[in-house]
Design brief:
This protein is an alpha/beta fold. It is built from eleven helices and eleven strands. Strand 5, helix 6 and strand 6 form a beta-alpha-beta unit. It is elongated, with a radius of gyration of 21 Å.
């Protein structure tokens, strides 16, 4: 097969137009990302670059464009996503990291100013590991325990940790918070020691609302990471009764929540020995994270 020498913009211009007609606002960046994947580039190509590309690679690129036209998220096509200051690999078992979740990182940084602290952090329902790993990178002496019901999620989290050479400060725990006494399995894994900090982005979408979500979410994010039960609060009701047994008395925990859930989640937490310390808003002005401490 002959290779073509062509500038990126000439190659992607027709595909940009196709995606734009579908209402995809990030058409230019998406095309650059998909072309980078096809060319196996470690960094994203720029529109002014000259590249060498085969006919097979061009067809592969067009195939990815067709996937994107159906509404498949670019992160699911290239199997990676930027979050906070790093890039994370994804698979079908992991939630697509979103900017709203970065509020958890910001909140922790505001509450733990000394980045040299030796923190024992639990990422509860870790998915791709984006929250826990971002914190581990910020707090250079910390240790993070990644815990998830999905083996596939833990595999991708471990892959992300290895990519950043932080395996020696990481532990991976397969567990289910819906089981009785789930906290004991975490304590046993941690030699009975409690955690300084617990972060969690549980499923919080009410079951009946999932069908109204964007195609990119309802068709490509794992249901287990979205479905919060009848009112969206099932995970909070399951987690909080046992949470105080694994958090140090002076520890803090940060939970992501859905729009308008702050008072219900706070009530659940307060019924189980926690005090609401702060409501933190995202860039849209919606309360997205709650900070709790033990009463």
């Amino acid at each position: 097969m002959k290779n073509k020498i062509i500038d990126v913009y000439t190659l992607i211009k027709p595909e940009i137009e196709k995606l734009s007609k579908k209402g995809i606002k990030t058409a230019v960046l998406d095309c650059r990302l998909m072309l980078s994947k096809v060319l196996q580039k470690k960094t994203t190509v720029y529109t002014h670059e000259i590249v060498k590309i085969s006919e097979n690679q061009i067809e592969n690129f067009h195939s990815l464009i067709r996937e994107r036209e159906t509404g498949k998220p670019i992160s699911r096509i290239i199997n990676k996503k930027n979050f906070w200051k790093s890039e994370f690999k994804l698979n079908e078992a992991t939630l697509d990291p979103r900017p709203d979740t970065e509020v958890i990182i910001e909140s922790v940084l505001q509450n733990y100013l000394d980045k040299s602290q030796n923190l024992k952090i639990l990422d509860l329902g870790s998915g791709s590991g984006c929250i826990g790993l971002s914190l581990m990178i910020e707090y250079i002496f910390s240790k993070v325990y990644f815990s998830d019901i999905s083996i596939k999620s833990l595999e991708i989290a471990k892959s992300n940790v290895i990519r950043y050479n932080l395996l020696e400060r990481s532990k991976f725990i397969n567990f289910n918070w819906n089981l009785p006494n789930w906290e004991k399995s975490l304590l046993n894994f941690h030699y009975g020691q409690k955690f300084d900090l617990i972060v969690c982005n549980p499923p919080y979408i009410p079951s009946k609302e999932i069908k109204y979500l964007q195609t990119e979410i309802k068709q490509y994010d794992p249901l287990v990471a979205l479905d919060g039960g009848k009112d969206g609060l099932s995970a909070y009701r399951t987690i909080f009764p046992n949470l105080k047994y694994i958090l140090k008395s002076n520890g803090q925990t940060f939970f992501e929540i859905g729009k308008g859930q702050e008072y219900n989640v706070s009530s659940i937490a307060q019924d189980h020995g926690f005090e609401t310390m702060e409501y933190i808003k995202d860039l849209s002005g919606i309360i997205r994270v709650i900070k709790f401490i033990i009463k």
